[in-house]
Q: What sequence folds into this?
């Protein structure tokens, strides 16, 4: 005869848990392959694998989690590498929406995506949008991290590059001088640990 309802329910739970575990193992394997492809510069080949991980995450952990923003960021990065700025913008916005809803609009993790999205707009020559987002990211870093941190240098550097693209050279010079001043006040240990400033500041 048929199993009693309680047994059927338990079997379903176990089966669902097993499928989730198998999916996580697959995601870990795909992550390793993506890293290898990325290191080889094979970005286009890595994208379908990252999309598969996105599908796994959506099925196993849901649509509105911080873990999901990491794979959105990875897809944005991969698409940026092959100059697909439109798709990169889409994934950045997806990640931004989730982080804002979970962490709030004034969190450094939100500023990180704002930086990336602003740079994407700069490449597309959408200068007004880029400047607006970059200044918002700067404000978040200043509010949360103070005036002397490497995250602020990164954001200032991007803003300086934006001004150069627009031939706003005096404003760019002022921005880079501010970045260099902050750079001089940060210890060498902080610089090595974070490792996020751009070569353009020192060159």
A:
């Amino acid at each position: 005869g048929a199993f009693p309802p309680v047994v059927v329910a338990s079997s379903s739970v176990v089966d669902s848990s097993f499928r989730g575990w198998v999916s996580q193992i697959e995601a870990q394997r795909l992550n390793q392959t993506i890293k290898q492809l990325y290191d080889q510069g094979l970005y286009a080949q890595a994208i379908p694998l990252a999309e598969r991980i996105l599908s796994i995450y959506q099925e196993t952990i849901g649509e509105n989690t911080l873990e999901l923003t990491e794979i959105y960021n990875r897809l944005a990065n991969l698409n940026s590498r092959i100059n697909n700025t439109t798709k990169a913008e889409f994934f950045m916005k997806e990640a931004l929406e989730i982080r804002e809803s979970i962490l709030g609009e004034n969190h450094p993790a939100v500023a990180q995506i704002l930086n990336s999205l602003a740079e994407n707009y700069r490449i597309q020559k959408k200068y007004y949008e880029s400047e607006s987002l970059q200044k918002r990211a700067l404000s978040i870093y200043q509010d949360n991290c103070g005036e002397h941190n490497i995250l602020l240098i990164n954001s200032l550097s991007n803003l300086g590059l934006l001004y150069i693209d627009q031939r706003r050279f005096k404003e760019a010079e002022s921005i880079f001088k501010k970045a260099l001043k902050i750079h001089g006040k940060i210890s060498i240990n902080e610089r090595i640990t974070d490792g996020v400033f751009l070569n353009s500041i020192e060159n």
Q: What stands out?
A: DSSP finds ten helices and no strands in the chain. The first helix runs from residue 5 to 39. Residues 112 and 140 are 10 Å apart (CA to CA). Residues 1-15, 191-203 have pLDDT under 50 and may be disordered.
